Each structure stands twice: as C-alpha cells, then as structure tokens.
Amino acid sequence: MWKAKVVVTYKPGILDPEAKTIHQALTSLGYTDFKNVETGKYFQLTFKEKMTRDQAESVAREACDKLLSNPVIQKYTFEMTEVSG
Amino acid sequence: MWKAKVVVTYKPGILDPEAKTIHQALTSLGYTDFKNVETGKYFQLTFKEKMTRDQAESVAREACDKLLSNPVIQKYTFEMTEVSG
Question: Residue B29 sits in a domain of what CATH number?
C-alpha cells in the first residue's frame, strides 16, 4: 500500500507572516539561534491497496496541482513510501 | 548550517475535519483511489552558522515541545539536514 507524504510551502518572495510571528515568539522565549523560519502544510495521502506506485504517484501529483496547493504562491514536494496493511 | 524539517500531525483518535473535507473534495473531483487523508503542519527551522548539529537538534526539540505542537493532541517528527550558505 502506497502513501504520499506531501509538503506544501510558499514560493520564494511570498510573504509568510505566520513564520515571522513564530520566529519572533521563539526569540521572545529565549531561543535566539534561529536564522530563519518557514511554514507549510503537510498532507499524508494513503492509497487503496490495488494502486501501483506509478498510479499512486500520478494521482498524488494531480491532487497537489488541483487541490492541495495554490500554484501561484506555493510549491510542493512529495515522497512515496510503501506501508504494510 | 543546520536545518530542522518539522512535521506536526494529530495523534491517533483526534478528529481531523480538514482532512475529511479534503478527502471528500478529492472524491468529488473524481479521485476515488484514496483510502485515507491526514493533514499536518510543516516547519523549516534554519539555525545560525555557529550551531552544531547536537545544539540545533536540542533547540529544535524544545521549540517543538513548547511552541510548534500541542502535546495534548499532536505529535511531531523532525529530521536534521545540513545546508550550505
């Protein structure tokens, strides 16, 4: 059974106010060793048993393009992993 | 220079209505090959140059415990990667 682990992040140059807030919060908690913070969304898509790796990868890519990311401001990467049961 | 790539997801048994909605949306778009969808947050923490891997890993773990995740309902994993410049 195949899983796609998808990470959606902002393209370079797109403002990420949540990340800025987290960076400031970490600094105010005393953690001053961060140079940069970025945020993103994570999705784990589990496919039905009958799907081959190639089929799953192709469907995962379409799902990312059409629903999970906004291609104007975001980019995505995913990796396929095989899991039992 | 070290980076921590953090993924925060819900613990088993915690309701994930966003994932349910995405699963339904995929189905209504004609993608009926998904058995399960889970969502989570992604954070990429870049550390200052002076930090060693051990120091960075320890700070990343504290940041996850104290700010990036809610230990009551969420779990996290992270991996350290070394980047140049």
Answer: 3.30.1280.10
